[in-house]
Design a protein that fits this description.
Structural class: alpha/beta
Strand order of the largest sheet: 7-2-1-8-9-12
Distance between the termini: 9 Å
CATH class of the largest domain: Alpha Beta
Oligomer: single chain
Number of strands: 12
Length: about 325
């Protein structure tokens, strides 16, 4: 396989990765066709070595400074620099990436991790970044908000029982406590949209390689968190009924490609959860498949809220476990 890199198009402005702007589709389509002709890019369908690039939640809400859950990392510019490197990686390897899959965290106001879902005795809601433990719920510190029951098409008693069961199951699974997040990734809002610089490079790849991007929506179920693109945190309700299903498309995709490259936000939450679930699926299918997975270490950052929370160490420890399982830790400047 050719390991030389393509140049980065002159229209790419690395100083605008942290900004919101409109992608000029017509101009980029014309540019992409000319680029394909100039560098003799073949349609992706002709690839003999097939590479899938998975981009997890590269949305304004996580990646643009000033937005609700900007992933700053310890440097303060984490997601911005991650996306600059990621754009350059895609442009340089345009001829080698067969398909790009993008996941979109997708929420509405009334979801289990948003403030409005819970109330205290005075009717107040928990502040953003509050950690809700099973003990908090059992002692009545926080309760299901009965005023949202009709919107969720359940009765208040069911809502309370679900909340009690949910936090108990989280504790048993040794996952995160229920975290109350700021309202974010609101369906149809500007925060939900892809970062423009990423949107542009994905569109450019689509036209230049004649490869339709694959989109995966996650996080719309109001009764469970959904960090991983593969499945939500809790799959059944307190009655034992199915609450949600795991998405098997990623293990199927991995088995149909020669390599899978993964990047996105945040390293400590949605990205690590997605990789963890993928590894679980791999372990049940064929452990050798882990060697086909490449994690772009320099295109992701952990959640860090100065003086509040810092998930850097936990994220790095998770990545070391992935490497021990056979996955490859690489940088965006490494040859494919």
């Amino acid at each position: 396989m050719n390991t030389s890199n393509l140049p980065i198009p002159s229209f790419f402005n690395s100083q605008k990765v942290d900004e919101i702007w409109k992608v000029d589709y017509e101009r980029r389509a014309t540019d992409a066709k000319a680029w394909a002709q100039k560098y003799r890019l073949q349609p992706a369908a002709n690839d003999t070595y097939r590479v899938s690039l998975i981009l997890v939640d590269i949305q304004n809400t996580f990646c643009i400074p000033g937005f609700e859950l900007y992933v700053r990392g310890r440097s303060g510019i984490g997601a911005v620099e991650d996306n600059r490197r990621l754009c350059e990686f895609i442009y340089r390897n345009l001829d080698k990436i067969t398909e790009i899959t993008l996941t979109l965290d997708t929420h509405q106001a009334m979801q289990i991790f948003h403030p409005i879902f819970l109330v205290d005795e005075s009717g107040g809601h928990p502040a953003a970044f509050t950690q809700i433990t099973s003990d908090d719920i059992m002692k009545g510190k926080w309760k299901f908000n009965p005023n949202i029951a009709s919107s969720l098409q359940i009765n208040p008693e069911v809502g309370q029982k679900h909340l009690e069961y949910y936090v108990e199951q989280l504790a048993k699974s040794s996952k995160y406590d229920l975290t109350i997040w700021p309202y974010h990734a609101m369906f149809g809002g500007i925060g939900h949209a892809l970062v423009p610089a990423i949107e542009e490079v994905v569109f450019f790849h689509s036209i230049a390689r004649i490869s339709q991007p694959d989109f995966s929506i996650k996080g719309f179920n109001p009764l469970t968190e959904h960090y991983s693109a593969i499945g939500p945190e809790i799959l059944k309700n307190f009655r034992g009924e199915e609450l949600a299903k795991k998405d098997k498309r990623f293990i199927k995709k991995l088995k149909s490609f020669d390599a899978m490259i993964i990047a996105g936000q945040a390293k400590s939450h949605c990205l690590t959860s997605t990789i963890r679930d993928l590894l679980s699926d791999i372990s049940s299918e064929d452990e050798s498949l882990a060697r086909q997975v490449y994690l772009l270490e320099d295109c992701t950052s952990p959640v860090v809220i100065p003086g509040v929370i810092d998930y850097t160490d936990q994220a790095n420890e998770a990545y070391m476990r992935f490497a021990e399982a056979g996955m490859n830790l690489v940088r965006s400047t490494d040859p494919i």
